[in-house]
Amino acid sequence: MKKILLFQHITLDGFVAGPNGEMDWIIVDDEIFDHVGTQVNNSDVAMYGRVTYEMMDNYWPTAAAQPNASKHDIEHGTWYNRVDKIVLSRSMKGVNKPLTTVISENLPAEIHKLKQHAKSDIIMFGSPTAAHALMAENLIDEYWLFINPILLGRGIPTFQGIKSRVALQLSDRKVFESGVLCTRYEKISS
């Protein structure tokens, strides 16, 4: 059975966004993109919450074709256009878009079915509300946390809705030139 991998940028004090959803503090550069590129390129399913999906879908379909496209724009844009996209959203129920499936109800059963039939691991980017829903059902198998060297003091928390203890094991870590620390934790099967 394939796994759900959550990729999230977080602050040192544990927030994924500021109080109004601000993400202007996130450090992204070629070194970080290259580090996660292999994992992303080996996946054929991306998962998002509605807000993150709309943000991604407004940018990535045409990013690779732009005259000033960076290496990352070309690679990720090409990847985005070929992979299946899963959107966790009640408000998008019934939306019909190519390569896009909306899950609006029965989250545990739908995710279990998705993991059984997936050809590769499923990567979830950001999407704090959707991530919290998955956390509440203990459905995330790996946490890739990109800890940015900043304190916000308040904002949207990284972890929320967890109903019971989840044991994790550190499986990888990397410090980038920018000061961002990537930690990868895998859920320990119980």
Characteristic terms for this protein:
Dihydrofolate Reductase, subunit A; 28% strand; 190 residues; two-stranded antiparallel sheet; alpha/beta; globular; eight-stranded mixed β-sheet
What CATH calls the topology of one domain is Dihydrofolate Reductase, subunit A
CATH superfamily of one domain: Dihydrofolate Reductase, subunit A
**Uncertain spans:** none
Q: How many H/I helical runs?
A: 5
Structure description:
With 190 residues, the protein is α/β, with parallel strands linked by helices. The protein has a domain at 27-145: 3-Layer(aba) Sandwich (Dihydrofolate Reductase, subunit A), CATH 3.40.430.10. 31% of the residues lie in helices and 28% in strands. It has helices spanning 30-41, 50-63, 71-82, 107-117, 128-136; strands spanning 4-11, 15-17, 45-49, 84-88, 100-103, 122-125, 142-148, 156-157, 168-175, 181-187. The strands form 2 sheets. An 8-stranded mixed beta sheet has the order 5-4-3-6-1-7-10-9, sandwiched between helices. A two-stranded antiparallel ribbon has the order 2-8. The longest helix is centred in the first third of the chain and has 14 residues, at 50-63. It starts with a strand and ends with a strand.
